[in-house]
Amino acid sequence: MATNPLFLPSGEAKAYKNSPNKSISLTPYLTPMATSFKPKIRKRRASGFHSVYILCTHNDKPVYIKTDLVVQDSGVTDKGDITDPRVLMRASAIICTYYDRLQGKRIDNLTAKEVVEIATDSAVEDIPFSDFAEAYIRKLSDRGVKRADNYRYALNSFISFAGKPSIGFSEVTSKLLRQWIESLAHTKRAKSMYPTLLKAIFNAGMEEYNDYDRGVVRVANRPFEFLKIPSGDTPEKRSVSVEQLRAFFAHAPKGRQARYAQDVARVSFCLAGMNVADLYELTPDNLQWDKLCYHRAKTKGKRSDKAYMEVSIPPQAMEAFARLTEDARDGYLLNLSARYYDRHTCTSYISRGITKHCKEAGLPPMTSYALRHSWATIARNEVGASEEDVAFALNHISAHKVTDRYIRKDYARVDKLNAEVVKLVLGG
């Protein structure tokens, strides 16, 4: 094959140019004519949506490379060539990446399959998505962006599902994302919010590493392109009846997850509907004899009193509470942090365990947050407490902010009301 200096590495091209004998023997390098890439479809589907492949032809031998792209029937010719401009642009970005990986490689004597292996091998140059995401979230926090923590929750959830602490951009595939979204199906809002936030991070990464004007494409895959993100559920009343709660706590759990979730649910309900996230954050300093003195995690940063609350541990919760203190990590009162990465992950898994236990007991599914709603509903409708007392026990912002400045809060009111609710449901 004739040597073309236009496609030699710069050093060898210079040596070729300055040589008095232009027939100097150099190891031949690939020219664009030796290997070509072209977007194609292999077969038509009855649905009208066809998977896009990159046809690699090397030394007249064809090999098809599967992509995450999909093209509609209207964007394909009878011969299977792609005409859809948007799909062509995405495919071109992928092909540019393939050519970049082949640049300077001695591949003349390789098979078409071996060339494809080199072109599609992103192990060496793949950009860590997880590292970029961490840096992106830190920037959001530094800028004071509200709910920046939600981005971190979304990332942690995805990384946890992927099963590896670090993941590259090329590993964020539409298949993996679909599986992850399916795992969030039991949630109310996360199934919509988390993929949306992760998509925002991924798109920011493409803006950071790609320069389409210069033909620089370091992040070629677009896993969100044809991925449908589900809508979040409309908020609804999530309380359950006294009878259902009694059945839930009376039923003996079969598995460890359900047993643990039942303990957490009992403690949460018996502490005036205390959030699982707040249970997760408790430290030994929060326990004063048999009373928990803490700041509600959700609202402590938004209130002058830092959402402070006191509630006594009733006898009906003591055994379960004691089990939750076993083998707790240093700095934490309960062992939830020893089991789960953060308070959000903890809440998610506890809700799964509660749902599993409900299924075993033949009860309608409920989440951990339903316990808080149920406590409030029972306190108001069954016990006859005032809305003001229920709001106080739930640690909600008072409607009488000015008056509250003059009145010392009496948390004994919480204990009295909580004791009535717990006794109604659990007896004792």
Describe this structure as you would to a colleague.
- A hairpin with a 2-residue loop joins strand 2 (49-58) and strand 3 (61-72).
- Residues 1-32 have low confidence and may be disordered.
- Helices cover 46% and strands 9% of the residues.
- The protein folds into 3 domains: 32-120, no CATH class; 129-209; 242-426, Intergrase catalytic core (hpI Integrase, Chain A, Orthogonal Bundle), CATH 1.10.443.
- It contains 17 helices and 6 strands.
- It has 428 residues and is mainly α.
- The strands form 2 sheets. It has a 3-stranded antiparallel beta sheet with strand order 1-2-3.
Widest beta sheet: strand line-up: 1-2-3
Give the distance, in angstroms, between the N- and C-terminal Cα atoms.
92 Å
Return the string of H and E elements.
HEEEHHHHHHHHHEEEHHHHHHH
Regions with little confidence, pLDDT below 50 for 5+ residues: 1-32
Number of helices: 17
| Helix content bin | 40-55%
Mean pLDDT: 82
Number of domains: 3
Percent of residues in beta strands = 5-15%
